Automatic annotation (TrEMBL):
It is a single-pass membrane protein. Its main location: membrane. One of its GO terms (cellular component) is plasma membrane. It is found in: Cell membrane; Membrane. SUPFAM superfamilies: L domain-like (SSF52058). This is Leucine-rich repeat-containing N-terminal plant-type domain-containing protein. InterPro entries: Leu-rich_rpt, Leu-rich_rpt_typical-subtyp, LRR-RLK, LRR_dom_sf, LRR_N_plant-typ. Residues 26-65 form the Leucine-rich repeat-containing N-terminal plant-type domain.
């Protein structure tokens, strides 16, 4: 072999090394593959997601660690249209995925379960349909999940209540039906649960009283029924109930537009911190309790029920009351 030939081989070798060193890393290739599922790609993504880059860490919506692995993927408010592809499963280091306020459609990709480090998932305000993937129980590091304002249907899977680190679950404004499962008591770290504006039925499981850290519970505008149980009397952190229950720290009680029956528990009248009591459009009966302790009460709406009797004279002591609807 001549010296010239040897030099040419060495030059080719180093050229290959240089080319391989500038090639886009696998996480970047994965992100680019997602574009093929979108019918509208915003100009800012077209201009910054450059295939000739070696790493995707300066791309819009992308945040990496020191090893150039994608940790966070946030495309909120970009007006993206299309489906969210299964290639997401290849982002093994992903911890945060936020796609809120876009036009994604199709089913929620079950391939997300391969992103086992995921802690925050926000797919709110899109056009996702179908059911919540049962396989989500494999996301054992998930702490925050919002699927609100979509078109999800079917029952809330029991697997969702097998993610012990969950602190916030928002399923507001979907087409979910069926009961609230008793296994909800597995969510011992839960701080906020929003089930507002779905088609949930059945009674409230008493096991929800085991979610001791719960601060905010919202489930008005469903088809929940049964009497108003006091199962959450032990939830000392609870500040806002748009579902049921009485608590010494309670500020707002909103049960609007359900099918609750029976009388309003007398404990409501003894909740000193309560400022808003909204029980309209149910099937409640009986008479109103005394409100001698509710000096902070500002708004009370118990209209469109079957409540009888006179308005308690103790309401006159609620000097902060600015709105009272009892018809």
């Amino acid at each position: 072999m001549s010296v010239i030939t040897l030099l040419l081989l060495i030059l080719c070798f180093f050229a290959l090394l240089l080319l391989s060193g500038s090639a886009l890393v696998s996480d970047g290739i994965t992100l680019l593959s997602l574009l093929s599922h979108w019918t509208f790609v915003p100009p800012i993504i077209n201009s910054t997601w450059n295939p000739s880059d070696s790493i995707p860490c300066s791309w819009v919506g992308v945040h990496c660690n020191h090893e150039h692995n994608v940790l966070s993927f946030n495309l909120t408010d970009h007006g993206i249209l299309g489906q969210f592809g299964p290639e997401i499963r290849q982002l093994h280091h992903l911890q945060t995925l936020v796609l809120a306020n876009n036009g994604f459609l199709g089913t929620v990709p079950s391939e997300l379960i391969n992103c086992s480090l995921l802690q925050l998932l926000d797919l709110s305000n899109n056009n996702f349909s179908g059911q919540i993937p049962y396989s989500f129980k494999k996301l054992q590091n998930l702490q925050y999940m919002s699927l609100s304002f979509n078109f999800l249907s079917g029952e809330i899977p029991d697997s969702l209540f097998q993610i012990p680190q969950l602190q916030e679950v928002n399923l507001h404004s979907n087409h979910l039906n069926g009961p609230i499962l008793t296994s909800i008591d597995n969510l011992t770290e839960l701080l906020r649960l929003d089930l507002h504006s779905n088609r949930l039925t059945g009674i409230i499981p008493s096991s929800i009283g085991n979610c001791m850290k719960l601060e905010d519970l919202v489930s008005n505008e469903n088809k929940l029924e049964g009497e108003l149980p006091l199962v959450m009397v032990n939830l000392k952190q609870l500040k806002n109930i748009s579902l049921l229950g009485i608590n010494s720290s309670l500020v707002k009680l909103d049960l609007t537009m359900n099918y609750f029956t029976g009388s309003i528990p007398s404990e409501v009248g003894r909740c000193e911190t309560l400022s808003m009591l909204i029980l309209s459009e149910n099937h409640l009966t009986g008479s109103l309790s005394e409100f001698a302790s509710n000096l902070n009460l500002k708004i009370m709406d118990v209209s469109k029920n079957r409540i009888s009797g006179t308005i308690p004279s103790s309401l006159e002591k609620c000097t902060n009351l600015i709105e009272k609807i009892c018809q």
